[in-house]
Specification:
The complex is a heterodimer of chains A (264) and B (424). Chain A is built from three helices and 13 strands; from the N terminus they run ααββββββαβββββββ. With 264 residues, chain A is mainly beta. In chain A, strands 6-5-4-3-2-1-13-12-11-10-9-8-7 form a 13-stranded antiparallel β-sheet, covered by helices on one side. Chain B has a single domain, classed as Porin, CATH 2.40.160. In chain B, the strands form three sheets. Chain B has an 18-stranded antiparallel beta barrel. The two termini of chain B are 27 Å apart. The chains are: A mainly beta (264), B mainly beta (424). At the A-B interface, β6 of A face loops of B.
Chain lengths: 264, 424
């Protein structure tokens, strides 16, 4: 779910067909897109995954509150991934489950199951910039990262904490995004995002996300164990800690249907 | 007072203590509630302060990989109203399912309703009106339920062999309607009484932005006809449950931040007047509605720094606050002869979602009877405290009820209720 991505064949075709798309004559925009596509390609074939996510919210005074969420993701070939988030804590929302079908061309679809009401509610996916569970992560930060959700511009190569990285800017294509721009540091060996800066609608630096403790699964897929999001404007921060990552667990498409929501 | 079914409780207790290879899951809460009525009531029950304690736990246990048991007992003690002090089981349901089907047997709860103010399409379960004046709380319904999920939509059939009486406040309960409903005087149109087997069918499907449901129900009404019975010493209402046939539609369209909702039913029966009822309206959400103030530099620069202590400035700088505007029209073809007070009424509401670490929210609403009747004002707000507790404040004020046939006896009642719940 987090920072995984899927390619759309059209995006590749556009790159291949673009005039002058040789390495020598590559524009910064073409190079940025090529890096995004390569990163996406390296994450293909994970099939499905499950993980536990602990979310620690910290206010400016350092006061913490915690949420525990179980996450299940399903790779969908030719479209965005499907994901389920099952909330275990805080206790008053225990059992609440959200289902997201992300799409590369049309808007994502989202449903919420409220156990106290035994009701599945379809919810608007337009609200991308809103905070996820009161944290410093917006819905759009936590959703499936499709190549087509941004346009790109390569900036430079740079060393980041002793790793060689590509630095590029990406611009959300959705007009409902809360950001004008993101700057991303991608490690050159593994094509994983180590750091992201988010710029708000006024163009000011809003948040920084640092991903660390990457683990490799199935000898292929890299996943961060810790994500640290700092909001520079409010002084608040949120840490996500992932554990018990499992891949190719045999989840089916029917596990990600509206009718399966209450069975989680 | 309902008796606690001992066998069900034993099962629930057994589930808790028995060694098991499959997961036992639970969610529940213990809550204490304090209610204050500033004015005296019309009845003899002139108390102004009430307290109540309740516990509620929903247990789910996978008996095998394919069969799940859900047990949901509840218990409440009420300082003033004996009718409200009781224990029971809201759910005791065995469920099994495949990729395209689901089967449920036992006591279950089913919600089809989508509108905010009232849900006429919810015909499966009886309303537990003693628990919650808004009618959102339901009593478990004994059922056999089969669902089939296809490309043409979800098809569902119900067999409902046992009717549950509606619960009502006792003589000591408030808000007091001036006259009490005596469940002992209950009668049924069906010769089988409460054991008439009702049937229900439903089809639901999604079309792009629209979720649509159609249903058919044939059996004993959930809503009783109340007839006054006067003896030399008492005046009470006797509930009678007629046999009805109901067809209904529920539909919700979602266009970005705009949701359009409608519920429509038509009822016929020998003992009731054939009629239609509807609730229709919309909810429009303004996401982060104060954020343009900051983005367009409408606020002084020093207001929105993290050091600000002024509550007004903090509110103005809150770019996370969502505002939902709710408008609904409630209608009943029978007009003033309706079995409920919402024959020609308008609901206007404001819903605030603070999106903070405590998941704070608030709902302000006004229901106006357009036939010159009652006005109901309501306020509902809640926030999380100490990680596992929720604090909720509920206020309601009834005004001008004199002209409204159905609410006239409530007079100008008002109350404030504070509820603290511990969740586990």
């Amino acid at each position: 779910m987090l920072f995984t991505a899927k390619t759309r064949s059209i995006a590749i075709a556009a790159l291949l067909l673009a005039p002058g798309s040789t390495l020598l004559a590559e524009t910064p925009e073409e190079r940025g897109l090529a890096i995004a596509i390569e990163g996406d390609k390296r994450d293909q074939g994970y099939v499905d995954s499950t993980a536990n996510m602990k979310m620690i919210l910290r206010n400016r005074a350092g006061k913490e509150s915690t949420r525990n969420v179980r996450i299940k993701s399903l790779e969908v070939t030719g479209d965005g991934d499907k994901s389920l988030s099952i909330f275990d804590e805080p206790a008053d929302v225990k059992g609440t489950t959200s289902l997201t079908w992300s799409h590369s061309e049309k808007p994502d679809e989202q449903w919420l199951y409220l156990p106290a009401l035994k009701r599945v509610k379809r919810i608007s996916s337009k609200n991308k910039s809103g905070p996820f569970m009161g944290s410093e992560f917006a819905f759009e930060d936590i959703g499936s990262q499709e190549v087509d959700k941004y346009t790109y511009k390569y900036l430079r190569d740079e060393d980041f904490e002793s790793a060689k990285t590509f630095v590029m800017e990406r611009y959300p294509t959705d007009k409902n995004s809360g950001y004008t721009k993101q700057v991303v540091w991608i490690e050159q060996d593994r094509y994983i995002a180590l750091k992201l800066e988010f710029y708000d609608r006024k163009g000011s630096l809003l948040k920084t996300l640092v991903s660390s403790d990457f683990q490799q699964y199935l000898d292929k897929f890299w996943r961060p164990s810790t994500l640290e999001m700092t909001n520079h404007q409010s002084g608040k921060s949120t840490t996500l800690v992932f554990s018990d990552y499992q891949f190719q667990t045999g989840l089916k498409s029917s596990d990600f249907s509206k009718n399966a929501l209450k069975k989680q | 007072m309902n008796s606690l079914k001992p066998s069900l409780l034993l099962c629930a207790a057994g589930l808790l203590v028995a060694g098991h290879s499959h997961a036992l899951d639970w969610r529940g809460n213990v809550s204490s509630e304090f209610t204050y009525f500033p004015k005296s009531s019309v009845g003899t029950n002139n108390w102004k302060f009430n307290s109540s304690i309740a516990a509620d736990v929903e247990l789910t246990h996978d008996l095998t990989d394919a069969i799940r048991l859900t047990v949901h007992p509840f218990i409440r003690w009420d300082q003033q109203d004996d009718e409200r002090s009781r224990a029971g089981v809201r759910e005791f349901l065995l469920s099994t399912s495949g990729d395209t089907w689901e089967f449920n047997a036992g006591l279950g709860t089913v919600f089809w309703g989508i509108t905010e103010s009232r849900n006429p399409v919810d015909i499966i379960n009886q309303t537990d009106s003693i628990e919650d004046i808004a009618g959102d709380e339901k009593l478990g319904q004994l059922m056999l339920n089969f669902k089939w999920f296809s490309n043409y939509g979800d098809f569902e059939a119900f067999l409902l062999p046992q009717h549950h009486k509606r619960t009502f406040n006792g003589a000591d309960g408030r808000p007091f309607a001036g006259i009490t409903v005596n469940p002992d005087l209950t009668s049924y149109e069906s010769k089988q009484g409460s054991t008439h087997t009702d049937i229900a069918l439903r089809w639901a499907h999604s079309f792009d932005a629209w979720d649509v449901g159609l249903h058919y129900f044939d059996g004993t009404a959930r809503s009783p006809v109340l007839t006054p019975q006067v003896t030399a010493t008492t005046a009470e209402l006797a509930p009678r449950y007629p046999l009805i046939t109901q067809i209904g539609l529920d539909a919700q369209g979602l266009y970005g931040d705009l949701a359009i909702k409608t519920e429509l039913i038509h009822q016929t029966g020998n003992e009731i007047r054939s009629h239609a009822e509807a609730v229709t309206g919309l909810e429009y959400t303004l996401v982060g509605f104060l954020s343009p103030l900051q983005e367009n530099d409408k606020l002084p620069q020093d207001w929105c720094t993290p050091d600000t202590r002024n509550i007004f400035k903090i509110l103005a700088c809150n770019d996370r606050l969502d505002l939902g505007i709710v408008l609904e029209y409630l209608w009943d073809e029978r007009g003033q002869q309706s079995a409920h007070p919402f024959q020609n009424d308008l609901l206007a509401g404001l819903r605030f979602a603070f999106n903070d670490a405590s998941s704070s929210d608030a709902l302000l609403g006004i229901v106006q009877d357009l036939d010159g009747g009652a006005t109901t004002l309501s306020l509902e707000t809640s926030t999380r405290i100490f990680e596992s507790y929720r604090l909720k404040l509920l206020g309601r004020q009834f005004l001008n009820t004199g002209e409204d046939s159905s609410l006239s006896t409530i007079k100008n009642e008002s109350f404030l209720q504070l509820e603290l719940s511990y969740f586990f």
